[in-house]
Specification:
Number of strands: 10
CATH architecture: 3-Layer(aba) Sandwich
Largest sheet: 10 strands, mixed
Strand content: 15-25%
Distance between the termini: 47 Å
CATH topology: Rossmann fold
Low-confidence stretches: 1-35
Strand order of the largest sheet: 1-2-3-4-6-5-7-8-9-10
Radius of gyration: 18 Å
Number of helices: 6
Order of helices and strands: EEEEEHEHEHEHEHEH
């Protein structure tokens, strides 16, 4: 057994290496309060990144809340996790805030090979984190994208991989049209993983987000939308907006 004061803990599983960034972190005892909370480095064939994992005070979690940062947000993973923990823990969800693994440290598919980034995200979430903290397969996963993270979520990740998840996808102050429309005709794939958007019509990302809304609706995939009128970009309480949309999505499932 590794001693608690060892500086690095390395975990090998399915070709992926997770390196704890804090000596106090360990995957060994998932029943200890907040034992896994901390920032980890990760590498795989798809790229290198880090993610912050924030657990609640429960002994087990029923799912994950995954927060995708905006441009420059890779330096504030822990702060984002703490903010969204306030709405995740009442739902018994552990919070994961991954850093974009692309060379420009941003989520959207802006460069050739960007589609590998979503494959890496799936690998980290499903093959590593869920298994390590014993979250059952097909448990609830709530994705929240902010700004560029919302553009990636709504435009790149959601149309390709909605069929792999159940829960909800929420885009805040950002969005886009689907970059891959091949799966949009399979409407059943989106019923278990509905999409919601909140953005101001004065936001510089509004037009592309509106184009995304039109595309999804044209394919018969409903999107819950809240269009507001704040000046500026992301100029509203993000956690409150996410919670309101999540409550609305859940109410429509009943």
């Amino acid at each position: 057994m590794m001693r608690p004061n060892q500086r690095l803990k390395v975990f090998l599983q399915l070709g992926c290496v997770l390196v704890a960034a804090s000596a106090s972190l360990a995957f060994a005892n998932a029943n200890t309060k907040d034992v896994l909370s901390g920032t980890y480095k990760a590498s795989s064939p798809y790229g290198n990144t880090s993610f912050h994992l924030e657990q609640c005070h429960h002994k087990t979690h029923s799912g994950l809340m995954v927060v995708l940062h905006g441009r420059g947000g890779h330096t504030q993973l822990d702060k984002l996790a703490q903010r969204f923990k306030t709405i995740a823990c009442p739902r018994n969800l552990a919070v994961v805030v991954p850093a974009a693994s692309s060379s420009n440290q941003n989520w959207p598919f802006e460069r050739e090979g960007g589609d590998k980034q979503d494959l890496f995200l799936i690998e980290i979430l499903k093959n590593k984190i869920q298994k390590k903290i014993k979250i059952p397969e097909q448990s609830e996963t709530v994705f929240i994208g902010i700004s560029a993270g919302a553009t990636f979520l709504m435009g790149d990740f959601y149309p390709r991989h909605a069929h792999l998840f159940k829960g909800a996808a929420i885009a805040l102050c950002g969005g886009s049209w689907p970059t891959d429309k091949s799966k949009l005709k399979e409407k059943e794939n989106f019923k278990k993983f509905p999409l919601a958007l909140r953005i101001s019509n004065k936001d510089f990302l509004y037009k592309q987000s509106e184009a995304g809304l039109r595309t999804y609706e044209a394919h018969g995939i409903p999107v819950i939308k809240k269009i507001t009128h704040e000046q500026g970009h992301c100029n509203f309480p993000l956690e409150t907006a996410a919670e309101e949309l999540l409550n609305e999505l859940n109410s429509k499932k009943k």
